[in-house]
Amino acid sequence: MRLLLMGPPGAGKGTQATVIAERFAVPAISTGDIFRTNVAQQTALGVAAQTYMDAGEYVPDEITNAMVADRLAEHDCADGFLLDGYPRTPQQVVELDEILAIAGVGLDAVVLLEADPDELVSRLVGRSAEQGRADDTEPVIRRRLEVYAAETGPLADIYAERDLLTTVDGLGQVDEVTERILAALTSVSAQRTATSAP
Length: 198
Ligand code: ADP
Prior knowledge:
Elements: E1 2-6, H1 13-23, E2 28-30, H2 31-41, H3 44-55, H4 61-72, E3 81-84, H5 90-103, E4 109-114, H6 117-131, H7 138-152, H8 155-161, E5 165-169, H9 174-196
Parallel strand pairs: 1-3, 1-4, 2-3, 4-5
Bound molecules: adenosine-5'-diphosphate.
């Protein structure tokens, strides 16, 4: 299974990515988590990414793309993966297409987790108290939502045109949302089997 999980900040991508990846026995790869680990360890990558992250801006494509290319080349990704938070820009879509084309594989599905913008802000403000993320202050949260709407939201159309997109309501209990995603993926794979049958 090769999956993408897309959606605005606060939609619950990270939580769902872990559960869904476990179900399909593939690694969950979160670009945000990889960047945060690098920031915490003050690696060269972390130092390069930190100012962008703290401001709610995207880390430049060349940095992000190189990091993802390295990660996807690792052995545990050979039979599948779930990417959480990548691609987020048109250039990242191009990079991922190239990585997959070279490997001779394709995506199975793209899940878009949707949620109401007011709900997103209140979830993120709530989370900041628990997790202490540097980018969970209200002005930075608003900037992250703006950047998402301008740069990443439109990418859903690309995957819809490729017939890979499935949209899931991210509101509700974690378990309910997981069930919705699994149901959507089951119906996607059932349709694939039906259309590819002789
Ligand atoms: P969220 O989706 O809630 O904003 P993430 O943990 O996915 O949180 O990302 C945190 C930050 O890491 C982003 O605001 C951005 O600075 C950086 N980042 C993560 N993924 C990418 C990406 N694909 N391209 C550029 N920057 C990224």
